[in-house]
């Protein structure tokens, strides 16, 4: 199970989530953010950053999880200049490297936070300002250095503002091309300069939020984009369940699509709320959802060196530090149960696979193989159709039977 369920803790949701939302102030006061006992003033930002780093390592130790994910800006404080910001990041990365020493802990992935600063308001790689593009490139280079230094298994791109807020003033073709050039430079740096070949770069599709439209809308769109610009060999996709539902898909749909295109690189395991229209990033606890998500992953034989990142947060009203433990334990249990059920669902001798095989059984013929190999012609098939008696043979979809089989396994 450990090999299949390569869990990762998200630094931003676990350590930096203060419970604030667009309508409310912070609700959570974490012990690692408070001033130490007997001390009025909070410690200087770099010391606070180290306390937070110790806190995430303590959380990982307690959970028995040895992978973590971070944005450059959640782990280290900004300075007054880019140089100072970089120096802060270097100091924290070295500190994290020390904490990692002698353990199996390493990042599943690092990423650059290219969406929070005011200068990224129009986007980063897709900003109309070339100066902003340059700043974003510098930030990605540094975040890649940090990820490689810590032995990260992947580097992820999630571009919350890489899209548009207002189409009439947007040069869509220009912006998409700029994004592709940005990814090319990042790929070259990761593969050639940092020699990280074999550690896939990831793109995490999301349809919108915070931008009105993101160019990497969903798996299919992003895979098409990568192929359009010849980037499909070096990038894989990090599917996030809540992003799938925002795009009008199920999480299993996104995983199955990525698997079909041989592009599954990882999972941001979370779930949304059917009554709330945004990325609520809740821990996935629904057994059926977990089983279907895991079946898609098992069918694809897993995704190492990718993993399952808990890109999920405790709710605004959950203010105890123990809630973080309950949340991760629940999330891990749901995945573990899901894996057991998935093993039954995908069993080649199991009832569901039998239904599936039966649906496609007519293709297990000489003619089927010929068509699949691209060796048949329309003329030849027309001749066959004219020769055939009556209507073409087509069987029942057996969906009710399949529903019952799934219900019997998943409960
Ligand atoms: C936001 C994304 C983000 C990425 C990392 O919706 O899920 O958390 O995973 O930037
Ligand atoms: Ni995510
Ligand atoms: Ni998200």
UniProtKB/TrEMBL annotation:
GO molecular function: metal ion binding; xylose isomerase activity
UniProt GO BP: D-xylose metabolic process
This protein's UniProt keywords: Carbohydrate metabolism, Isomerase, Metal-binding, Xylose metabolism
Gene3D superfamilies, per database record: Divalent-metal-dependent TIM barrel enzymes
Recorded family membership: Belongs to the xylose isomerase family.
EC number(s) per entry: 5.3.1.5
Keyword Isomerase: yes
Catalytic activity: alpha-D-xylose = alpha-D-xylulofuranose
The UniProt record lists the keyword Ligase: no
UniProt name for this protein: Xylose isomerase
Class of enzymatic activity (EC top level): isomerase
Organism annotation: Micromonas commoda (strain RCC299 / NOUM17 / CCMP2709) (Picoplanktonic green alga)
Cross-referenced PROSITE patterns: XYLOSE_ISOMERASE (PS51415)
